[in-house]
Design goal:
66% of the residues lie in helices and 4% in strands. The chain is mostly helical. It has one domain. The two termini are 20 Å apart.
Length: 367
Amino acid sequence: MFDRRLIQNFDWVLLILLVLIGIISVVNLYSATYPLKGSSHTPIFLKQVYWYLMGFAALLLMTTFDYHLLERLAYPIYVFSVVLLVLVLIVGDIRSGSQRWLSLGGISFQPSELAKIALVITLAKFFHGQGQLNEYRLRDLWQPFVFIAVPCLLIIKEPDLGTALSLVVISFSIILFVKIRWTSLVILIMTSVSAVPFVWLTLKEYQQRRILTFLRPEMDPLGAGYHINQSKIAIGSGLLWGKGFLKGTQTRLHFLPEQHTDFAFSVLAEEWGFIGSVTLLVLYLLLIMWGINIAKNSKEKFGALLALGIVSIVFWQFAINVSMVTGLLPVVGIPLVMFSYGGSSVLASMAGMGLLMNISMRRFMFQ
């Protein structure tokens, strides 16, 4: 029988924050792709509207069942996501030198977006099943490390280094939350640092250039450093109030690369200035804080870990993208979650928000 308390506990705050971010995203994408080319193709901003509508449908769908069902299905979901990643490498579409998409019935999607949610669910199940272990040693974490390594290696093979790195930091956030022994943490950090030379040798040439250009932007201003230089010019020229809607020169003259995906925030900063940028940052900050509050108020460990993992997905993609477009991090190709154009990203992110709302709505069941 349907529990009326689910309606009473519907998380309107979370929904309002998502609607506001969605509206700003669509308006920004309209500007980023204006003037619209004379083409029979659907405009990008309108596609984003469709993806958001499907995303909100996915969000509502994710609230219709008890999220504890995911604990029983965690490993099958994980295996399914890994199988999709393997299929990408076999029959996936190749675009701009990367093989990241699967086509199904005329619709393309990125399985790596599903892998983020699947990995969070799997790690939440694993650590919940460990009971009340106070501190984890490295040998206690060999299974989570395997769970993390498999999708990361497959995604790196595509290649998509940015998404692989985001999986690592998202997973590490969960591991820190469940507490790892400080000696094990030091060993893990030292091992990671010592692996840097090996990782450097495995990077492709264009990835190495991006890192070197990040350290010395002047070494290749028209090559690898072009993207970040144009982004900084766009953001800086916005000043306090911005140049105005549809009046950003870097955007209008198409000096800004990937302005509807990776550098969508730069478009916003140029046209709406510091005030517009801070407004969006505050919305994301409120969303992240609200998600942490949901995790804190969860009455059992699986819900808390699941909520924390979903919040980590939003936080790290948000933090990395904004740091990337402002020159604080190298360009790694991570879009701004639920803001940049991308059907797979919007659907997966909104499904994750649906799970977050699911946990929020059912918190009364464990009081």
